[in-house]
UniProtKB/TrEMBL annotation:
Coiled coil: none
Protein name: PH domain-containing protein
Organism for this UniProt entry: Sphingomonas sediminicola
Pfam families linked to this entry: bPH_3, SHOCT
Residues in SHOCT domain copies: 172-199
InterPro entries hit by this protein: SHOCT, YokE-like_PH
Domain YokE-like PH: 43-143
Superkingdom of source: Bacteria
Region (Disordered): 151-170
Length: 201
């Protein structure tokens, strides 16, 4: 991720406005001042915040019982997850929900005239954050998909030279010899000699 060290420093300093400025957007604290105040407490050790937005998330089974209907949540995109925070209106309790990046298939953003929304595709369902600040949804979508690509590339094995099997793998060499023998390209004697040479016999 570009500027990862800068994001790390800003996260450690709890400089949420600085992270937004690094992304070229203004900090959207409307309805989420309490959540911004407790965000650092809910981060895991070494977790880095890359982007922030706030938006409406429908009431769920895990929402505070003192809240009704849809609530404004703070959403933080980190190097590990989407972190959702919602402070209770009448108490000091905080609803915390996470969507780990390894569960996310894609992230889409949609911008309207004034506001936008973020859609997180989890395969079996879609998590939607609506009524977000318009500029922040594009940032969240772009950075989230970049993180997903980087994670996917890190899991994929590096291609070998020429895209074929490694020249140093004796098992693959044996398999190629066996295929040549089975196709009739090598006689029994040639196959035995090549196999013996490969195995050092």
């Amino acid at each position: 991720m570009d500027n990862e060290e800068k994001y790390r420093q800003l996260t450690e300093a709890a400089d949420w406005a600085g992270i937004c400025a690094l992304n070229g957007v203004a900090l959207d604290a409307f309805g989420t001042k309490k959540e911004l105040g407790v965000l650092r407490e809910h981060l895991e050790p070494g977790e880095i915040v890359f982007a922030l937005t706030s938006g409406i998330v429908k009431h769920s089974e895990t929402s505070n019982s003192s809240d009704w209907g849809s609530n404004t949540w703070l959403i933080a995109l980190t190097n590990e997850r989407f972190l959702f925070l919602d402070c209770a209106l009448l108490t000091r309790s905080v609803d915390v929900q996470s969507i780990r990046l390894d569960r996310v298939q894609a992230v889409s953003s949609s911008q309207g005239w004034v506001l936008g929304k973020v859609m997180i595709d989890l395969g079996s369902r879609m998590a939607v954050i609506d009524n977000c600040q318009k500029a922040t949804v594009a940032v969240i979508g772009d950075l989230a998909n970049k993180l997903l690509r980087e994670r996917e590339n890190a899991r994929s094995p590096a291609p070998t030279r020429g895209g074929g099997p490694s020249d140093d793998d004796p098992i693959e060499k044996l398999e190629r010899l066996a295929a040549l023998h089975a196709s009739g390209a090598l006689t029994d004697g040639e196959f035995a000699a090549a196999k013996g040479k490969l195995l050092g016999l």
